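TA notes. Do not distribute before section.
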Amino acid sequence: MKNNRYTEEFYAWLANNYKGSRAKMIEKIQQQFGYNMNFKKLQNQIWIARKKYNIPELNSEGRPKSKDGAIHKRINGDCIRENGKLKLYYRYVWEQANGKIPKNCCIIHIDGNRANNDISNLYMITKIQNAYINSNHLAYNNLEELKICLLMSDISIIKPHYVRPSRRKKQSVGDDKKW
């Protein structure tokens, strides 16, 4: 059996410092431990440290990968593979914190920044409220403004709209006969 020349201290350090630039990590490892490493060796040792200390694998942005696979970059936002299906990352974050999203609801970003998927920036509203906000071009930048927009949409949905009476004459029951 081959002797492992790397120490437990090295793996513990690697488990705590595996994020960041690989070039800087190679320099720090050489200074602190005296190991000569290239990029490929470092990747292998990070993989061993992750397995040893049960650290989740991260994507390029530092977010943990899902058990099924990686977080995918898309034009309209990040996606995560869950149970073999792609799901928008902000919906995944919401469901992890608050449970399943009802069919008549959607999740919006309070500050309007779709890259900010922090749970404090996500808010669930109904699809009808979302349609009202978007069709009337209502803008909001914080939670208070969003709640005002939601109140306006609720009032508009409840209030009956004026319908112009028809100009056509109503036919009575016997008017369909020709004389």
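Switch to the second chain here.
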Amino acid sequence: MEINTSTLVAALGLLILGRVLISAGGRRLAGIARKQGDALGRVAENARRAQALRSITVSVGNVVLVAVSGLMALTAFGVNTAALLTSAGIIGLAVGFGAQTIVKDFISGLLILLEGQYNIGDNVKIGGMEGEVIRVTASSTVLRNKEGNTFYIANGSVDNVINYSQSELVGEKEADAK
């Protein structure tokens, strides 16, 4: 079996360069989220949001990077990756149909975090549920109302949000401007 060293070196180079670029991209995304928070005067909440976005970005980027580098390394060792990719594509399609809701929740969660619709500690009304946000992840939001009830809301089902905390903040800034 002949090993293609140039492809193996390229895979290793891609892995190293990719890790550097993913890390830099994650920091850049977190910086954008922090600046958005500074403009709203909500530095602490947006620092947590920025960290969550950075973590998600780096994790997804690393999975893609390792998969591509792994396929390049297999090719360097003479393994026919066409059949492997075809099988993975078919399995991915089947899983994709089954995981539509999970993907919808994940993408909606990323948008909620990016847009800063609400943060931990905010008083919000999501659909018919009202309370304080105690946790926001990429897939769900957790609220606790005044009676102590906890609501778990899939981010994909978040349609309308009233953020009472942001309303108070906007009112304070308008009063300060006058």
